[in-house]
Structure formats: C-alpha cells, structure tokens
Amino acid sequence: MFFSWCSIGDTPISHKNGVLRIEVDDKLVVRNGNNSLVWSSSVLGSSNNAATKLFDTGNFVLSRDDSIGDLNRALWQNFNEPTDTFLSEMRVPVSSKGGEHRAYRSWKSSNDPSPGNYILALILMEDTG
Predict the structure, then answer these.
(1) Alpha carbon distance 37, 76 (integer Å)
(2) Mean pLDDT value across the chain
C-alpha cells in the first residue's frame, strides 16, 4: 500500500516507508523512513492501553481501549485538528480562549501540500455592546 502523509504540508512523506503508530506515551505519531518524527498528536497523560478507530464519518480517533466509541472521552481526534479538508460531520473548532483558533488551510497547488493562500476559520470577537 502506498501511504502519503500530508497533515503537515511542509513535511509530507511521499515514499513507502512512513509509519503511523501509537507510542508508549499514547501519542499517535508519524515517522518517516529514517524513523524521524514528522508529526505527533497532542495527547496529555498516558493510559498504556490506547487504540485507534476510523469512523464512517472520516474521524480518526485515539482513545483508551475501554472508551473507543465515546468521542467525549477521546484522547485525540483528527476532527479537532483541521488541516485542509472539511467533511460533512465536522464542526469548525472555536475556543473561548482569547486568540486561540484552528483553521482549515488550502494547499499551495494540487501537487504541493504546503500552505496555500486560503484559510477558513471562525474567530470569536468580544461583545462590546
């Protein structure tokens, strides 16, 4: 199977030696053919019994084995880490913390996954009225 990793557009993996795995600290990681870290999920804490599941919606979820179907207890899910694709079951993530937002960003071109010119994001503005 050919695997092309493009979540981090500036460092795509375009060869057959990329690896997606759960590390001992329960972080989901992508490593290239040289075993160098390309990407890591933002998981806090460790359960030592993590598992992943790809839902029909396209949401890829990292959870503890005993809560794999409960999205409210997920350690990490790709729907909360938008990149360049918006699927029908996704929400645009918004944080009430000042200045914090996540955005969908286009590719530079159809063959170049580095950040492009278009961004979709919601930013909460403080009500002054």
Answers:
(1) 18
(2) 76
The Cα 12–Cα 10 span in angstroms is: 6
Question: Using an 8 Å Cβ cutoff, are 20 and 13 in contact?
Answer: no
pLDDT of residue 44: 64
Give the CB-side neighbour count of residue 73, counting CA atoms within 13 A: 11
Q: Which stretches of the chain drop beneath a pLDDT of 50?
A: 1-5
Give me the long-range contacts of 57-62 (CB less than 8 A, separation at least 24): 57/87, 57/88, 57/89, 57/90, 58/87, 58/89, 58/90, 59/89, 59/90, 62/22, 62/26, 62/28
